[in-house]
User: Fold Glycoside hydrolase family 99-like domain-containing protein from Mucilaginibacter panaciglaebae.
Amino acid sequence: MKQKINFIAILIGTFLSCLSASAQEKKPVDKRHYDVAAFLYPAYASDDPRLRPFWPSGIGEWETVMNMQDRYPGHYWNRKPLWGTINEADPAVMSMEIDQAAGHGVNVFIFDWYWYDGRPFMETTLDNGFLKAANNNKMKFYLMWANHDVVNTWDTRLNKYHEDNVIWTGKVDRDEFEKICKRNIGKYFKLPQYYKINGKPVFMIYDLPNLINGLGGLQQTIAALKWFRDETKKAGFPGLDLQFTMWSSNFNFSGFDANKGEKPKNAVLQQLGFTSATHYQFAHFINVNDDYLNILETVKKEWAKIDKEFDIPYYPHISIGWDNSPRTGKSAVVKNNTPQNFEKALRMARDYADAHPKQTPLITINSWNEWTETSYLQPDNVNGYGYLEAVKKVFLQQH
Assistant:
């Protein structure tokens, strides 16, 4: 009898053990958190009078999107936003966008940020839209200072003449630079929504040569950026994560100082105080008039080169596409950049992040809304929500 009871106990124990093992097998594996950051171009606003000289109808650069077929009848580019010509500086609209972004795995917006003629430009989408949205606690944001010159590119009435007249310069002197930095530290860095790495506010600079030329040379720029880092520390932060916009990895610093010859780029970036890097667009370093899968192979090689030649962390960047024809009527065009192939690119970026576990798992995407460069996540009449769904599948569902 005792043996029979022991046998039954063993059977019960084995059965319970199997149940436990099965439960462990079915227990969901903890998914890794990724910071997926999409650049946001703030030109789709209706409340910024400084946009009127470029887009007089009052809806920002939606004007260029919506009148494309009027300017170029029968042109292949005929896209329409599923959300309509929304005013992104409206907090109710931005609240909807935040829900859509966060719900699909985009948890950071990188605002293209401009400063011309002694004051900010295109800032209403951030100030009136994002920062006044009731749900902005779902997202983080940081600034990319788009310090390039402004020519006639935005104005479709004039850009066809290919004139290089500079409307506003992106160059600033030291006094103007200090004014900009103090303002951003006080106005934005201190906000809880501002994106930080190890407590350090992230600030990205788009055009380093323009910065150097405006400040008067390489040594002057090293001094100015040291001042910026020191001011950030004085404001109570452990430091500044200064992010470099990588164009081609083949750049050099020759020509910025009296001493001629190529300067070691990795060492100079460190002297300047840059602590991380990413790209803004594939078009900056690749012939984009190609198939998307071919472009991805080149991107992989570029990442490997950056990994080898630079000591600062590189955060992998994925561009959705490139086609600037809404502004110009003709353009180099990325081909075969379907949502399915974009998903492959995102998996490539996720693999890069996983292969660099010591750095923050940050991935940047061009972009949330660059409609006139045909590189946007927002849904349209061609791909619907396809690109957003790709982000969701790779970074939220992770399968």
Remarks:
- Residues 33-397 form a domain with the TIM Barrel fold (CATH 3.20.20.80).
- Residues 1-29 have pLDDT under 50 and may be disordered.
